[in-house]
Design a protein that fits this description.
Shape: elongated
Low-confidence stretches: 147-153
Helix content: 40-55%
Number of domains: 2
Distance between the termini: 59 Å
Strand order of the largest sheet: 6-7-10-5-11-4-3-8-9
Oligomer: single chain
Length: 285
């Protein structure tokens, strides 16, 4: 008879689920919180442990597994527009990982077993933690490149913008192909979806979508107002646009990831910058 220790069962499955959630976060290409990943992994470990309690065997039903996976992803990535994509990626990774474990067991490996979607090992806890640490390092090295937005050549980072005590935060893609700069200073310009910058404006003073599409008229509307000295027109070129203008706002500070850009111009885009909603701004490397 095999004796199952719930603490080992919980720890092993939580570690495996954390690595799967971390891989999901890297592949989905958006910012993530390690604390929330840990919360999602803890839910997975708890689910695995409860399965072995008397009277809870019904949780092995595939629908229950799906609900458990959805709860883990919701805890790790809830509140982001990439929730459904993250769930699909997580399920794909979990299936691939389970297939790998099954292949190892068929080849005679006995260190790690898979039964009903739950991982268990008879190894010492210290060995489990050491193995998890090695897996984490390898996973980080692999997904450091895989998780980048390869289609454009950058990475998504959290950004915080402040203006006169007001602040807003959203994901920004640091893109090697984004070369927009301030003509007066040569400093980089952050291009952001105009709708995201509404919290930086006084109540009722944020530009409307129509104004963002007609930046010259918008600048006229702000003439003489409290933000008039911070607003200007910024020329730009893009595919299909030879001579374009964007309404630009000089904010007090911009921080992207760990880099502080200080007071720079933020160009207000009238359209969305990301089809999947993974980021709301672009800045050059």
């Amino acid at each position: 008879m095999t004796v199952v220790y719930l603490d080992s069962l919980f720890l092993l499955n939580a570690v495996v689920d954390y690595l799967l959630l971390l891989a999901t976060a890297r592949l989905s290409g958006g910012p993530f919180s390690r604390l929330r990943l840990g919360a999602g992994a803890a839910l997975g470990g708890l689910y695995a442990a409860v399965l072995f309690l008397p009277g809870w065997g019904w949780l092995v039903h595939p629908l229950c597994k799906l609900v458990s996976a959805a709860a883990m992803v919701l805890a790790a990535f809830g509140g982001t527009p990439r929730l459904l994509r993250s769930l699909l990626i997580f399920l794909g990774l979990a299936a691939a990982f389970g297939g790998g474990i099954l292949a190892i067991s068929l080849l005679g490996g006995r260190g790690l077993t898979l039964a009903g979607g739950v991982f268990y090992s008879v190894m010492d806890l210290r060995l489990i933690l050491l193995s998890a640490a090695v897996c984490y390092v390898l996973l980080t090295l692999v997904f450091r490149r895989v998780g980048r937005h390869t289609a454009i050549g950058g990475e998504v980072l959290p950004a915080v913008l402040t203006l006169e005590g007001r602040r807003v935060s959203f994901p920004v893609l640091r893109d090697t192909g984004h070369t927009l700069t301030d003509p007066a200073t040569g400093r980089p310009v952050l291009t952001a979806e105009g709708a995201l910058l509404s919290p930086l404006f006084p109540p009722g003073r944020a530009p409307t979508p129509a104004q963002l599409r007609a930046p010259a008229e918008a600048l006229e509307a702000y003439a003489g107002g409290p933000l008039s000295r911070r607003l200007r027109l910024l020329p730009y070129q893009a595919v299909g646009v030879e001579h374009g203008l964007l309404l630009a706002l000089r904010v007090d500070s911009v921080r992207v990831g760990v880099r502080d850009y200080g007071s720079i111009l933020v160009a207000l885009s009238p359209t969305r910058l990301s089809d999947g909603g993974a980021y709301g701004g672009l800045i050059g490397c």
